[in-house]
Write a structure and sequence with these properties.
This protein has 250 residues and is mainly α. The protein contains nine helices and no strands. The protein has a single domain, classed as Growth Hormone, Chain: A (Up-down Bundle), CATH 1.20.1250.
């Protein structure tokens, strides 16, 4: 009986698609942050109004639509989101320069710094309330986009396969293009499906909370998840491990 626990744990570990990848706890922590992306983009799109704070591809498209005269879209808000995201990505790059030698400490530091603007957004959301209009749109869009820029830059530097935390286009493409049906080697569909499911879950929960409760609760949930990820990264970064060594970037 005593040996059944470790055996069962070993079987579960082998089912984890990142098992043996050398990335240690990073995939689990980045999955949590992928859920965060879904939550905050649900808030920005549903509550703030037709703008994304993490999916910059969508904002570029929205900007084009807005300049063409499409109703319900705001070119200035889309530009604010793009600019704030780039500012966050710049900060994320600087964080990587100073802490990139240890991926666990890098994630801990970047996550802690990104948490600050999200907490600011939580407070502002409680003040602004719904519906969000006027200056409130910018007040919420900018800090959230800064946080997502930091997160995206960090995930890029950590270089965990199939976990960018904010973009799924290439992930979805890989599921189909790398499949045996398409003549590929099969790739890692389980990893990609988990990543897609994480963002879907975050978007679903975030939208449900915005529609049925308010916009403060989903942002508080995002802050709680980011806090959990940063605390776990801190706890797991006390020693030197092979998974913490820097990896190459695309």
């Amino acid at each position: 009986m005593g040996a059944e626990g470790p055996l069962r744990a070993g079987r579960v570990y082998k089912l984890w698609p990142w098992a043996g990848s050398g990335h240690g706890p990073l995939p689990s922590l980045l999955i949590v942050l992928t859920v965060v992306t879904g939550v905050v983009d649900a808030v920005s799109y549903v509550a703030i109004g037709h703008v994304f704070v993490a999916n910059m591809t969508g904002n570029v498209v929205f900007l084009g639509f807005a300049l063409a005269g499409a109703s319900g879209l705001s070119a200035p808000v889309s530009l604010a989101a793009l600019g704030a995201f780039l500012l966050g990505a710049l900060a994320g790059g600087r964080i990587a320069v100073h802490f990139g030698a240890h991926r666990g400490r890098h994630l801990r530091t970047a996550g802690t710094i990104a948490l600050v603007p999200v907490l600011v957004a939580v407070v502002l959301a409680a003040i602004v309330g719904q519906p969000v209009s006027g200056g409130g749109r910018y007040a919420l869009t900018v800090p959230l986009a800064v946080a997502m820029g930091i997160q995206n830059a960090t995930a890029r530097r950590l270089a965990v396969p199939d976990l960018t935390t904010t973009v799924l286009t290439l992930t979805l493409t890989g599921i189909a293009a790398d499949s045996r049906l398409a003549g590929g080697a099969g790739g890692h569909p389980a990893r990609r499906l988990i990543s897609v499911s994480a963002m879907f879950t975050g978007a679903l929960v975030g939208a449900l909370l915005v529609i049925n409760v308010d916009l403060t609760l989903p942002l508080a949930l995002a802050a709680a998840l980011m806090t959990t990820s940063a605390l776990l990264a801190h706890r797991l970064s006390t020693g030197e491990s092979a998974w913490a060594e820097p990896r190459g970037r695309d």
